[in-house]
Amino acid sequence: MKIAIAQLNPTIGDLSGNAKNILEAARKAAKEGVRLMLTPELSLCGYPPRDLLLSSEFVESMSKKLHELAQQLPTQIAVLVGTAEPNPYATSKGQKPLFNGTALLEGGKLQKIFYKRLLPTYDVFDEDRYFEPGYQTNSFTIKSDSQFKIHIGVTICEDLWNEEEFWGKRNYEINPLEDLAELGVDLIVNLSASPYTVSKQKLREAMLGHSASRYQTPIIYVNQIGGNDDLIFDGNSVAFNRTGNVVCRAKAFASDLKIIEFDEQTKDLLPTAIAPLPATEEEEIFSALVLGVRDYARKCGFSQVVLGLSGGIDSSLVAAIAAEAIGAENVLGVLMPSPYSSEHSITDAEALVKNLGIKSQKLPIGDLMKSYDRLLGPLFAGTEFGIAEENTQSRIRGNLLMAISNKFGHLLLSTGNKSEMAVGYCTLYGDMNGGLAVIADVPKTRVFSICRWLNRNREIIPNNVLIKPPSAELKPGQVDQDSLPPYEILDDILERAIHHHQSTAQIVKAGHEPAVVNKVMKLIARAEFKRKQAPPGLKITDRAFGTGWRMPIASRWLPPNPSN
Amino acid sequence: MKIAIAQLNPTIGDLSGNAKNILEAARKAAKEGVRLMLTPELSLCGYPPRDLLLSSEFVESMSKKLHELAQQLPTQIAVLVGTAEPNPYATSKGQKPLFNGTALLEGGKLQKIFYKRLLPTYDVFDEDRYFEPGYQTNSFTIKSDSQFKIHIGVTICEDLWNEEEFWGKRNYEINPLEDLAELGVDLIVNLSASPYTVSKQKLREAMLGHSASRYQTPIIYVNQIGGNDDLIFDGNSVAFNRTGNVVCRAKAFASDLKIIEFDEQTKDLLPTAIAPLPATEEEEIFSALVLGVRDYARKCGFSQVVLGLSGGIDSSLVAAIAAEAIGAENVLGVLMPSPYSSEHSITDAEALVKNLGIKSQKLPIGDLMKSYDRLLGPLFAGTEFGIAEENTQSRIRGNLLMAISNKFGHLLLSTGNKSEMAVGYCTLYGDMNGGLAVIADVPKTRVFSICRWLNRNREIIPNNVLIKPPSAELKPGQVDQDSLPPYEILDDILERAIHHHQSTAQIVKAGHEPAVVNKVMKLIARAEFKRKQAPPGLKITDRAFGTGWRMPIASRWLPPNPSN
User: Fold this and answer.
1) Do A246 and A322 belong to one domain?
2) What's the CA gap between A549 and A542, in Å, rounded?
3) pLDDT digits (tens, 9 = 90+) for A358-382
4) Which residue from A minimizes the CA distance to B13?
5) What is the rounded distance in angstroms from the CA atom of residue B198 to the CA atom of residue B495?
6) Which positions in chain A touch B554 (Cβ < 8 Å)?
7) What is the reported pTM?
8) Spatial distance between the Cα atoms of A186 and A150, rounded to a whole number of angstroms
9) How far does the CA of residue B399 sit from the closest CA of chain A (Å)?
């Protein structure tokens, strides 16, 4: 029996467009003799729909569209489609209003619906906000053309992420996988919308391979692909035979349609095409960010982008990502030198423009700085040049970029990295301006390594950008290291504090200076008000400063001072 | 037996400061012969601590502080203190890592700890993200000086919000109130952190009075007070006798310590001082916003604020709120007229400054506008004056205000109202700039009614501000109604769509033009990117554009077009 993985790229809320994509994939699969097609979690509305789920009009439209789709599908193919389904017992039993469901569409009708059992409510996930967990083990039986019956267990994303033997702990009280194994299904399918993080595919494959082999049951995992605001879904759908080996893998960071054969004799999946994984983490992250930019622009209706080019490494990388995402001809880089800008800030930016083949504009801001100084002069009389003046430069640039964005309908990309965002080394309403913060989850040291990877064959990021000391150039002779610890140290502290939830004592124990650790902790806490107003930043780590980071601003918590 | 309500104003994460406030209240209460003191939900760390709860260092510090506090308390008084408590079974049972608890401190020790059973996970609440629900009915027995024993049922906030008979539906499967009634407790206490919304106190009192009388059990409800980012906690702690009548009410919008007598003969609470409720919704909202501004400023370490004064009604109201919150002498209003500004925009703003007694500065922006035009001229050649030019004016003003904020350490208050925020009639990085959006949850029609209430005794908001047509004055002769439906109509549509989740068909049925409804729906959806980057806005309704509003940006959902 042929089973298809439809690795789709839905647009959130675009019920008609998403249904059309499912229909097209099903028609193509049916032509290839496919009996069952799998689509990702909530494939009809796209994941995550968030508070659209609070609109009954939205939920009703989805239900209507689902039934329409059932009637349009080719008769010979059954399709699993992700949809939100009202919970009829919500108010009588005091339950949540919806289920996160997967509908089995066949023969023009909705035949059966399965409910997600484990609802992630951590990091970027808020499923308890909307959904009641399903309480039943989900399975159905499908007949092949040769009248052979296959018993298929259905799981939705998180349902497969509670295998105690693999994790060494339980994340939820029940394990749907155990229930399905007890039931003795022939095959387990998993319909997912699993956001990308660095190297996550290796973890997924280790976990799923472990489960397939432990329960001696083949598993097909289908993931959504595409960028949805801050989240990037990497696809990488993958199938395992009952010994836990990968027998099929769909593309990373692209839509795909894969057909797998379930062998009726051996009751196992047969090997087929296995798309390779990216060779390095740098390549993987770059591809993820390219997809994130491309989809955010497309799904918001932009075909061109604009960004400021400082000649520094952050804006250089973002320009390279943008050029790859939507074409160099659609990228406008704006050089905005001030009297404090170094000579190389211009020549490096110009070299980058040339290397990438993007468009550029030069708008020197010296006169505008003087105009602000003139206007504010009487009020600021007797004060020293400081943060206010530095930030004004950054904000002038932010205004110019937004004027261009508003005038020509270009999406403004902001270029700050995660290290800056963590410690607040960025200007609110200045360089933080943008519709999308492309590398807001990429630490500075990683920005460097990605740029070195980009240059592996030829110079794309001008070499001087890679070797000069990072500087905001907001006052004469300024370099980042005047205000911050070296990035190797800063990034290690940030990694420990943010990703590993280490205490200050643990970070000090790892070899960092107590004074430096204290300073960094204070900077992180004090920059919360900036992060609150940041544009969505593409998430590539397991803890980004986005929808999964929920910190109070008016707060006085600081970890106790560590000592040596 | 004397029982005290300590209506406290904690700062999130300030464990030492919060513990000190609890200790001071307990010492004061003990002197008055109080046997038991009640404090609000999570009183030790403040509510909501959000992702601080993910730091084990934070949770450990809290536990340490709790035990310290137990030892410091006067011996004759027992105190219920809110704290987050690690769940020892988290990883073995697959449960959440913490409980939302209330600790009974007495005799120098932690005697007992009670866990919250109903965990709100909707709107601004994310409790399933952190907490495992408690599974046990919570009660303890306390002896009075006369050796009389009182059996007290303990509930935490949401635990009392699932009375089916009152709501006409269940919100959760269990009802802790029923369990306590079955147990036959003498008194139920409810330790809350219940955020303010307009008229919510009436709802609370109706619900709690109903429960007291239904179960023939007196109830003491203790609420937190204070502003924490977007949330305002109104206090209004209140006690009911067993017939469901209010016998005591603490202040609204202020810290308070109330002492109530539990009569050992009648096993009921005796009447004592009942603080009055605000006379009008306008007074109530004004008081809430004053507290929100005062606490946000104080808890973030600001003693002065700055805001732009356009001569319009929004900035006038915000200035009045700020003056009340932190003193007129600490408020700086900045007038930034452009060549498009009307004469009255200046004279009205000056009249306001005089009426309030605040400080002011005038910074005309004409020269800066010319500087931007000059710089952008070649790039914009051949284009019409439009949104780009309009927004640049707003952004120049935003820059000037931020320069003043950065230079003098003033908190910048933004002045946009909810109607504007809903439809995107505001400039990102312009008039949206600020650390706190004071009236972002107040619809324009309500802005007018609050200003009329403010003027009830004498003119505070200049009369001309109340009667002239609202205008952004970003081009000659512009008024808001060129772009938007009249505010009475707009606000009614917004109320239906946002608060009542009405479908477009329902809104049209209520008498609105289909074309207008469609337009408003589109505007709401398209402004999501602006709201994403807005400062925290003080919440006064049950659906604000803040932490409780979680919408996708790159989304294509629009309700189906309604027809007549």
Assistant:
1) no
2) 10
3) 999 999 999 999 999 999 999 999 9
4) A557
5) 14
6) 11-12, 227-229, 295-296, 299-300
7) 0.97
8) 6
9) 7
Task: Kindly report, residue by residue over B497-544, the tens digit of the pLDDT.
Answer: 999 999 999 999 999 999 999 999 999 999 999 999 999 999 999 999
Residues linked to residue A256 through DSSP beta bridges, in sequence order: A7
Marked catalytic residue, from B2, B65, B116, B299: B116
Which residues of chain B are within 8 Å of residue A400 when distances are taken between CB atoms?
372, 375-376
Residue type, A395: R
Record: contact A52-B93, CB cut-off 8 A: no
CATH number at residue B262: 3.60.110.10
Reading the block at residue B348, the tokens are: 């009205």
Residue A133 and residue A117 in contact, taking contact as beta carbons nearer than 8 Å:
yes
Count Cβ neighbours within 10 Å for each residue of B282-318 and write b for 16 or more, e otherwise.
bbbbbbbbbbbbbbbbbbbebebbbbbbbbbbbbbbb
How many C-beta atoms lie closer than 10 Å to residue A353's C-beta?
A: 22
CA-nearest of A148, A224, A134, A144 to A180 is A134
Same domain? For B258 and B315 the reply is no
What would the pLDDT profile of B455-513 be if each residue is shown by its tens digit? 999 999 999 999 998 888 888 888 888 889 999 999 999 999 999 999 999 999 999 99
Q: How far apart are CA B401 and CA B459, in angstroms?
A: 27
Closest C-alpha among B66, B44, B70, B58 to residue B97 = B58
Query: Does residue B507 fall inside a structural domain?
Result: no
Same domain, B307 and B444: yes
Most A CBs within 10 A among B557, B558, B561, hence the mutation to make, goes to: B557
Distance from CA of B31 to the nearest CA of A (A): 30
Q: Which residues contact B64 (CB under 8 A, 6 or more apart)?
A: none
> d(Cα B109, Cα B112) in Å, to the nearest integer?
9
User: How far apart (Å, rounded) are the C-alpha atoms in residues B35 and B29?
Assistant: 8
Q: Are residues A352 and A325 in the same domain?
A: yes
**One domain, residues A175 and A213:** yes
Active site residue B513: no
Which of A158, A434, A418, A189 has the alpha carbon at shortest distance from A293?
A434
Closest CA to A75 of A111, A42, A101, A102: A111
Q: Choose one of A249, A273, A297: the last residue of a domain.
A: A273
* Cβ partners under 8 Å of residue A149, min gap 6: A141, A142, A143
Residue A44 buriedness (CB in 10 A; 0-12 / 13-18 / 19+): buried
Q: Do the domain assignments include residue A492? A: no
**Are B144 and B247 within one domain?**
yes
Nearest to A316 by CA among A228, A417, A394: A417
Point out which residues pair with A143 in neighbouring strands: A149
Whether residue B162 and residue A374 make contact (CB cut-off 8 A), yes or no, is no
Are the C-beta atoms of B444 and B485 separated by less than 8 Å? no
Same domain, B253 and B147: yes
Cβ atoms of B178 and B137 within 8 Å: the answer is no
Q: How far is A405 from chain B (nearest CA, A)?
A: 8
Q: Per the domain annotation, does B508 fall within a domain? A: no
Task: Tell whether B545 is covered by a domain.
Answer: no
What is the domain range of residue A324? 283-481
The domain boundary residue, chosen from B254, B277, B300: B277
Domain count for chain B: 2
Angstrom distance (rounded) from CA B539 to CA B528: 18
Q: Do B398 and A429 touch (CB under 8 A)?
A: yes
- Pick left, alpha or beta for residue B229 (phi over 0 → left; psi -120 to 50 → alpha; otherwise beta): left
For residue A542, the tally of other CB atoms under 10 A from its CB is 16
